[in-house]
Fold this sequence. Notes:
Layout (H helix, E strand, L loop, with lengths): L3 E8 L13 E7 L3 E2 L4 E7 L8 E5 L2 E2 L2 E4 L3 E5 L7 E7 L2 E10 L4 E7 L11 E2 L8 E7 L4 E6 L4 E6 L4 E6 L19 E6 L5 E5 L4 E5 L6 E5 L20 E6 L5 E5 L4 E6 L4 E4 L3 H4 L4 E6 L6 E5 L4 E5 L6 E4 L20 E6 L5 E5 L4 E5 L5 E6 L8 E2 L8 E7 L4 E6 L4 E7 L1
Parallel strand pairs: 3-10
Antiparallel strand pairs: 1-2, 2-4, 4-8, 5-6, 5-9, 7-8, 9-10, 11-33, 11-36, 12-16, 13-14, 14-15, 15-16, 17-18, 18-19, 19-20, 21-22, 22-23, 23-24, 25-26, 26-27, 27-28, 29-30, 30-31, 31-32, 34-35, 35-36
Amino acid sequence: MLILLVSACVKNTGTGNGNPGKGTSLTITGTNRVEGAMNDSLVIVGTGFTADTSKDIVTINDVRAPILSATATEIIAKVPVRAFSGNIVVKVGGKSVTGPRFGYLVTSGVVSTFAGNTNLGPGYSDGIGTNARFFGPVALALDTTRGNLYVADLLNRRIRKIALQNAAVTTFAGNGTYGDEDGNGASAEFGSINGLAVAKNGAVYVADADYDVIRAISADGTLVTTVAGQAGQSGYSDNTASTSLFNRPMGLTFDNTGNLIIVDQGNKILRELTTLSMDVTSLTTGANGNFNQANGIAYNPRNSDVYVADAGSNQIKAFSVTAVYYTYFGNGTLGYLNGIKGAPVEFNRPQGLAFDNNYNVYVADTFNNCIRMIDNQYNVTTLVGSTESGLVDGSGAAAKFNEPYAVVVDNINHYLYVADTGNNCIRKVVLE
């Protein structure tokens, strides 16, 4: 068994069996792992422990770990479910010692239906949870500081808002009429809403693909404005925001500096709206983007890479911060195949992407009817769902989706929300 050497120490007192010996230092000198998944064995080597497992306390990220056995120099515990990443701490006899930081590996999830009701069929109604109705939800954005999830309700031509606390669904903007009318949120009109992102000030940005513009909705929902592009004029032009041109803008994400990155699907490139100067520039070219119906986008805060779900290529493409190169996940073959880093993997028209705060990226693998994960070591696995479509709540592969289009991560509570488009509802995944 490999023990990773660490060094942490605090003085302790006691008797030895059931209590640590008098003058014995409470130390952590090594562990068998510094990352792992729920229920993995965690061996902690040190001094000052007790053989009475009721008097040893082990926590990871302040979550208590079940202890299987203990001696004065070794504790064998299990990684607790939903511990997530944080320090290993051992407490004995009123003393504590902090060990290495532990990296929690998400391997599965428990799926429930959060809002919307497929049994009622597609439609439009506000309400609590499954009393609400949607018609083609295709994009999501989360504002955890205000406790709201925003939904692009495509075929209702509205932006809906869901309160995370009680799953109360309300209409945030749009009157359901097809159009490009700005103004008061309740009377505004939208065309094809395909991307959402929330700014730090709470404003909700919308990619309206049919009208080739980027719209913004004030945080209180009272005002909708066109902030980039010219309504009804498709094209390609970098310029000031109001004179720029887009061709079917789709996915949206903000970078660390507050600039908006846009998937310009029709032009097969990434664009950037600099929100301070309100200028539009191109981040990629057709040559180094090589997109084929790109849609979802996610920003990696660790290294400022940008990931794009290129549905037409059945690939996830990753761009550096300077957009001078790209790598990809997926061999381009339409299919379903997981793999370890470097091995061939396959997707089936992936649409949505989201990062968690451990830099794993979640993929709405739309036509495979499941949620895949590219972990921070670039291994590709299936988190929840299977290739069989349906609507089934449950854990892991037992859960079923119907063409999920979008995902978003609540990094505070470690939940994943999914726009389950074919089922016209929003699902919630408790990450494990």
